[in-house]
Amino acid sequence: MRRALPLPALALAGQLLSALSLAASLGCAGYHVVGARTGLGDVQRVAVEPLLNRSYEPGVERMVTDALVREFQRRGGASVVRNPAGADLVLSGVVQPLITRSRSFSSVELALEFEVELRVELVARRPDGTLVDIDRSVLRDWELYLASADVEVERKNREEALRRLSALLATRVHDALSERLAAAQ
Q1: Domain ranges of the chain
Q2: Interior CA angle at 46 toward 41 and 50, to 5°?
Q3: Cβ 116 vs Cβ 162: under 8 Å
Q4: Model pLDDT for residues 69-118, shown as the tens digit of each residue
Q5: Three-state SS for 134?
Q6: Are 52 and 62 in contact (CB under 8 A)?
Q7: Do residues 168 and 141 make contact, with C-beta atoms less than 8 angstroms apart?
Q8: For 80, what's the count of Cα atoms within 13 Å in the CB-facing half-sphere?
Q9: Three-state secondary-structure class, residue 41
């Protein structure tokens, strides 16, 4: 003899059926997940030229360049190529001087935290020489890092903050280019 499902199980099955029908109807209505493989419009190949370093922080230009390359590889909408002549879009630019400020202090006026500001000037150029505008507001941000009496620890904290900033700016650059290039299609 078959037993009937308990009332909570029927309610759960009804909710599941409603959720599935809603998902199916949204899929048929043209909604889709915004994402990776469609974001750069007609751009299939991107070249990221090594950035110039106008700051006094050694290696920060490599950090930002590597973050840009990783972001474009991670998103997968276009392949990253080494040769700018074979690219549909070439990124180049300059890391501006870093700005460091004390942000919080102890009761005896020792710095507890510092803020480092990373500013980058980037140019996105198509093969025909036309520029793709990148919103300047995405090209700068700041990060806090802890001060330390140990010089090596403080240097490491600053480096980690710059790595986080590089990754953040790379994500923002990709998003800004995605919006611009998708709108141009």
Answers
A1: 1-32, 36-184
A2: 145
A3: yes
A4: 999 999 888 899 999 999 999 999 999 999 999 999 988 888 999 999 99
A5: coil
A6: no
A7: yes
A8: 16
A9: coil
CATH, range 36-184: 3.30.160.150
Threshold 0.90, pTM exceeds: no
CB atoms within 10 A of CB 167: 17
- Judge whether 149 and 134 are in contact, CB under 8 Å: no
Dist. CA 118–CA 120, nearest whole Å: 7
Assess contact for 95 and 55: CB atoms under 8 A: yes
- For residues 169 and 165, what is the distance between their CA atoms, to the nearest angstrom? 6
For residue 172, give both structure tokens. Answer: 């923002």
Tokens found for residue 95:
């890391």
| CA–CA distance, 38 with 35 (Å, rounded to integer) | 6
